[in-house]
Amino acid sequence: MVRIAMLSFWHVHAKDYRKQALEHPQTEVVAVWDEVPERGREEASRLGVPFYDSLDEVLAQDFVDAVVVDTPTNLHPDVMIRAAEAKKHIFTEKVLALTLHDANRIIASVRAAGVQLMVSLPRLNDAYTLTFQEVVDRGLLGTISQVRVRLAHGGASDDWLPAHFYDYEQCGGGALTDLGCHPLYLTRLLLGLPDRVSAHYGRMLGKAVEDNAVSIFQYASGAIGIAETGFVSGSSPFTMEVHGMSGSAVYSQTDGSGSSVRVKSAAHGFAEWTPYPMREAKPSAFHQWVENIETGRDAAEQNEIAVDLTKLVEASNLAAVAGQPVRLTDLRP
Questions:
Q1: Which of 128, 153, 187, 202 is the most exposed place for a label (fewest CB within 10 A)?
Q2: Burial state string for 28-53 with b = 16 or more CB within 10 A and e = fewer than 16
Q3: What residues contact residue 296 under an 8 Å CB cut-off, 6+ apart?
Q4: What's residue 154's pLDDT?
Q5: pLDDT by residue (tens digit) across 32-67?
Q6: Averaged pLDDT for residues 176-181
Q7: CATH numeric code, 2-115
Q8: Strand pairing of 2-7 and 27-33?
Q9: Among 64, 120, 53, which residue's Cα sits nearest to residue 88?
Q10: How far apart are CA 314 and CA 99, in angstroms?
């Protein structure tokens, strides 16, 4: 049994991870810490477990094997490095850190401690993502020329996101740094890391952080990646497009429940838009993390994608401020 301490309920997905921890047959929640004590005490009371005012105290408990980190993003490096040094396995909400330097510090501490780290990048495990990977790997589209991924919602315009999601100090950014993580890591998955990143941010509602954003990846090959996001799109469907010199593949959740990845590639037997057989989804990131703890299997590939995501977030934020492309090689390691 993996005994988990919940570290903060700041993020909107914290209660989802609490639910997964309570429902998984090999995990149990045994303690709570929160940087906002009143919120933490309320959650601990609901769970029937002790609340700790001190992070060091909860990390010192022998009955805590692992932690789920849902603190403000700017606290991630301090909290996760301390958890790793206390030999606690770590599951965390994205983004791993706001800068490559801090992400590398976290990874170094995790490796030194020999603990398991899993960053929640859930769309890596979805059936459509695995299907796109198969289509690309089979060469059905030829040389990839463009990837476009859009994920947006009306959290700001419909006023259901918590107010602290617009706090620049805590979040390090707005729509791109939070929701935009998914288009960023999916584009990187299919095209690899770009040479340069440009970004354009909008503040339609006058928040301290952007609520409308696009990040553009530029590659030496001439390929382009486009990651779109926003908190001000009331009915925007999740959409992925992969275009190559020999064909294209598209996916859009226009009906709210998802649909097939459709392929058109006359050179490979897809003369018309044709549904491609969907791959089976992988277990959730949380389930993979628990299995890694139990088996000792390393999450090196997933952690590499998480670090690359931080690179893309940092570069996008810098590019939006500078108004010009940022090279990933210019980021502080």
A1: 202
A2: ebbbbbbbeeebbeebbeebebebbe
A3: none
A4: 98
A5: 999 999 999 999 999 999 999 999 999 999 999 999
A6: 98
A7: 3.40.50.720
A8: parallel
A9: 64
A10: 6
What distance in Å separates the CA atoms of residue 22 and residue 305, rounded to the nearest whole number?
A: 27
Exposed (0-12), middle (13-18) or buried (19+): which is 62, by Cβ within 10 Å? exposed
Cβ atoms 211, 233 nearer than 8 A: no
Determine the pLDDT at residue 256: 63
Sheet holding 196-202, edge to edge: 270-275, 262-265, 248-252, 239-244, 144-152, 224-230, 212-218, 196-202, 326-327
DSSP 48-84: TS-EES-HHHHHT-TT--EEEE-S-GGGHHHHHHHHH
Band the pLDDT of 19: cuts 50, 70, 90.
very high
Question: What is the spatial distance between Cα 242 and Cα 22, in angstroms, rounded to a whole number?
Answer: 38
> Domain map of the chain by residue range?
2-115, 123-283+314-330
Greatest distance between any 2 Cα atoms in the chain: 63
Average pLDDT of the segment spanning 233-261: 90
Query: In one letter, which amino acid is 126?
Result: D
Q: How much is the average pLDDT of 207-213?
A: 97
Burial class (CB in 10 A: 0-12, 13-18, 19+), 154: middle
pLDDT at residue 257 tops 70: no
253, 259 in Cβ contact below 8 A? yes
pLDDT band at 259 (very low <50, low <70, confident <90, very high): confident
Number of alpha carbons in the 13 Å side-chain half-sphere of residue 171: 26
How do residues 315-329 score in pLDDT, each as one tens digit? Answer: 999 999 999 999 999
Which pLDDT score is estimated for 254? 85
Between the CA of residue 200 and those of 7, 175, 222, 230, what are the distances in Å?
A: 33, 12, 20, 12
Pair of tokens at residue 188: 């990187």
